[in-house]
Amino acid sequence: MRRSILSSLRAHLGRLVAACLAIVLGVGFGTLAMTAHSSATHGIDETIGKQNAGVDAVIQSDRETVTAADVAKVKQLPQVASVVAETSAYMQVQWAGQVRPDSLAVAARYDTSKIAGPTTSSGKLPEAKNEIALPAKLADKYKIALGQEIKLSTWQGKAYLVKVVGLLDDTTSIGSANAVATAATVSTFEPQSYINQVKVAANPGVTQPALAAAITAAVGQGLETFTGEGWIDHEVKQITNGIDVLGGVFGMFAVIALFVACLVIGNTFTIVIAQRTREMALLRCVGASRKQVFSSVLAEATIVGLVASGIGVVFGVALSAIALTLARSFDWGLPPVDLHLDLASVFIPLLLGTIATILAAVVPARRATRVAPLAALRPEAAPVAKSKAGIVRLVFGFLLLAGGGALLAQGASSHQVIIGVAGGVISFVGILSIGSLLVPALVKVLGALPARTGGVPARIAVANAVRNPRRTAATTSALLIGVTLISLTCVGIASVRKTFDVTMDKEYPVDVTMTVDNEKLPATAANQLKSIKGITEVVPIRTALVKSGQNTLEVTGVDPSTAGSVIHDPALVKQLQSGTALVDQNTLYELNVKDGAVVTIVSGKQKVNFKVVKANGLARITLTTADLQKLAPTAAVTGYWLASDPKADGPKVMDELKQSLPTVKNLNISGGLPERSFYTKVFDILLLVAVGLLGVSVLIALVGVGNTLSLSVLERTRENALLRAMGLTRPQLRGMLAVESLLMALVAAGLGIALGLIYGWSGTAALMGGQIDGPISYAVPGRLLITIALVAAVAGLLASILPARRAAKVAPAGALATE
Fold first, then answer.
1. What's phi and psi for 243, nearest 5 deg?
2. What distance, in Å, lies between the first and last C-alpha atoms of the chain?
3. How confident is the model at residue 6 (pLDDT cuts 50, 70, 90)?
4. Structure confidence by residue, pLDDT tens digits, 127-157
5. How far is residue 479's CA from residue 499's CA, in Å, rounded to a whole number?
6. In the chain, what are the helix, strand and coil shares in percent, each to the nearest 5?
7. Is the pLDDT score of 614 beyond 80?
8. What percent of the chain has pLDDT over 70?
9. Confidence class of residue 677 from pLDDT cuts 50, 70 and 90?
């Protein structure tokens, strides 16, 4: 049997390539997910560990603030060898070429003999009061060299001149690193400097739990104490939480890819067994037992699965290395992550791929054992849905569909993600279970038009597509899973994005607010701001100080005719009317009035009554410019409201705005543009991931559809030959198979998109319902869904090319003679 297995593998190598491709893609995707996650987690864990080397306990504020008295108590403990109280001062620095000063955090240098601290990549750490060390990246950005003097100033305006004596090694820092000065210098900058945290090293023989317990007893329960290992775990978790979530998402997609691959593998081995019917019958005739036939098929599956899974692991590791290299070009505030391979990320995908291949080959292997030595010389007809097993399967499928649908609705209404996911999985399994009934029915409905207009070949194609319901359903399932996955991802991202935009519009109705205090804006200010790339609209605002009762308040006036171009919330624009004052929540509380009340605002001799409307996100009190002129006719332009391009780089735009209007000394800039821009990038990355998943799913499904058509061509060799003998041309035969493949692809695309809409909306409701105030905004990404349908249709047509060529090459006379 060993020779038989090897010869069979060589003989059917071309056919097995299809199964290998599916396994390579599924295993490769799983390896990519696990390796990238393992590398990122290991890199961050190693970085945090180096930064906290020698730390046996950490104290940080909880209900109370860490004080100098707490530090003194810890130093007196007999278990303690070294104590470092991390303090810092927040200064302003005027960089060369910058219009306005920037903020700079300066940390106090401490003794690093027992606890790790900052190191320099060049120069030295500061030793004197007038010395400072800057992060290397910051120095490079502003072209600061060793020995250069820079001017620091406190927020109260007191200035200090310091010399740069060192550049800190920040290549492995997470986030932006602080500058470093001596403790005396930091104390001079900020006499009442805040203690960020306290790091403690233990005496020899003292365990970390014992040290943490002693510290807790000394400082009380108002502070939070970690062991050194616990602190590292805490810091790593804070950073890798998002990485874990992303790893889980990729892992889920990898499992789905393997499941789709199993369907393709099962169809592939079914084709191989159908082609080897005579061979197996002859083996049985010469004495091979059913057990030997079954074992030979599984042995072939094991070899194919092991080899293809190995290739998939190598493919996934290579993709991981490329992805990590590309990730270094993005400034995400994370240290460079090197490729890290562990046993789990290599052997788990290898094992899963091999086991999945073996399991997928079990049913075809059992079918191979039923080949009778003399009688089974043609492929066996597949069981139909009218059989006893088919009826049980359909009933079971409908029960799963109903139960899963109920759980899905409950998860959406109660905002329970786990319940929603369970409902989605159960209901989808139900859809797959009733596929042998549902898919042929949809094919008939969809094929009604081509059957009427496409002539005899089209009618035959429709009939062939529904001839074997179970195989058609299995083939469609491969593409259905991929389309459903991509559709729900796109719909979910679009809905979350729309909900986020609506929420942001309410919280930050204006992208950027720019104002000045007691300064005059230049006449060309609006043009200067509008010339900044990413700024689309600039609307001037006027302000004046007024009184309401005993309260002195600043009111802002804006022209309603232009306010709509910068205010994203249409409801606020509609409420901005004459006689109405838009007031934020804090000011309502300060004035002790309620939404809808009438307040009297006084400015000099002017006194005007306004109806109060609650409106957060704008100024404290917002009026129309006409109403403001009634109160303060001489109110000058003191700022602008800006709108930005949704695709603009928010942080870059904010940096340019901070350096704009050089004649203005102090410029106040605020708004939700950086946050909106960050999440827009996240959504774009997720959509990019969705496109990648579409490619993987389409490739695997394309292989599956092609395999099924190949089996169909094999079983219908005599039938196709008879059609050729009766006048069917080769182009008509190829067109017939193309229509058959296209119908299956379109059914999978239509059903998958419909399920994607339901799952995407339900998932958005479960995920976002408890996170936001107000209704969820559902979205239908029409262009993306149409693109998905077109890609699926093209994939179906491409899958028909090779089977159609194979069928068209067979001569009618030779095929009719086939027994």
1. -65, -40
2. 26
3. low
4. 998 899 999 988 988 889 999 999 999 878 8
5. 30
6. 60, 15, 25
7. yes
8. 83
9. confident
Q: For the residues 704-731, what does the mean pLDDT come to?
A: 74
Banded model confidence at residue 37, pLDDT cuts 50, 70, 90 = confident
3-state secondary structure of 776: coil
Q: Are 68 and 195 in contact (CB under 8 A)?
A: yes
Cα–chain center distance at 652: 23
351 contact partners, CB below 8 Å, separation of at least 6: 309
Euclidean distance between CA atoms 244 and 249, whole angstroms: 9
d(CA 423, CA 430) in angstroms, rounded, equals 10
Task: Give me the pLDDT at residue 325, please.
Answer: 78
SS (H, E, C) 270-310: HHHHHHCHHHHHHHHHCCCCHHHHHHHHHHHHHHHHHHHHH
Contact 634, 625 (CB under 8 A): no
Per-residue pLDDT at 341 exceeds 50: yes
Cβ atoms 279, 331 nearer than 8 A: no
pLDDT, greater one: 251 or 710: 710
113, amino acid identity: S
Contact predicate 112/233, CB 8 Å: no
Eight-class DSSP state of 531? T
In the block, which residue shows the tokens 């496409």? 454
Nearest to 145 by CA among 131, 155, 134: 134
For helices 13-51 and 228-275, angle between their N-to-C axes, nearest 10 degrees: 180
Burial of residue 564 (CB within 10 Å: 0-12, 13-18, 19+) is middle
Query: Within a 13 Å sphere around the CA of 375, how many CA atoms are in the beta-carbon half?
Result: 4
Tokens of 77: 């403990």
